[in-house]
Amino acid sequence: MSEITHNILSVQVQDVDGIISRVTAMFTRRGYNLVSLVSAQTETPGINRLTIVVEADDYAIEQITKQLNKIIPVIKVVRLDEANTIARALMMVKVNTTMANRPQVVDAANIFRARVVDVSPESVVIEATGTPSKLRALLDVLETFGIRELVQSGEIALNRGPKTMAPTR
Questions:
Q1: Cβ atoms 85, 159 nearer than 8 A
Q2: Residues with Cβ < 8 Å from 129, sequence gap 6 or more?
Q3: What residue ranges define each of the domains in the chain, with the CATH number in brackets?
Q4: What is the pTM of this model?
Q5: What region holds the ACT domain (predicted)?
């Protein structure tokens, strides 16, 4: 039995109604657990890119890839290699502040190259991008001040260098 690992799949699909439902239904039917799913337009009109993060072993990833390729609007499925991939997630966190501790909260954000995007008398909203481990580390620091609210996106990812999913022009 192989080890369960963090896997990022990049999937090009036609921009058609119901494609997200079809993809998630495949995961549900097969009993695979999605860690995150992000869908967005690409540089090519009519083509969207899904970035799917799954915690699974190699056999399950192979099965997921085969099942995704069977869905008609799916154009291409690529398992991104962690060593050659740039992956980032977005997080916004509302942190309790007072006049006394606000400078410490802002300093913590600056250390993690995060931005303060809103300030009120009792809180600040911080926006950060990075790897899941960087975002977790920022949260660990901010938890001492008290987190009021938190929202995170799933990861998005691209291969390093000139290699692309799109056909060369």
A1: yes
A2: 88, 89, 90, 91
A3: 5-80 (3.30.70.260), 86-156 (3.30.70.1150)
A4: 0.86
A5: 8-82
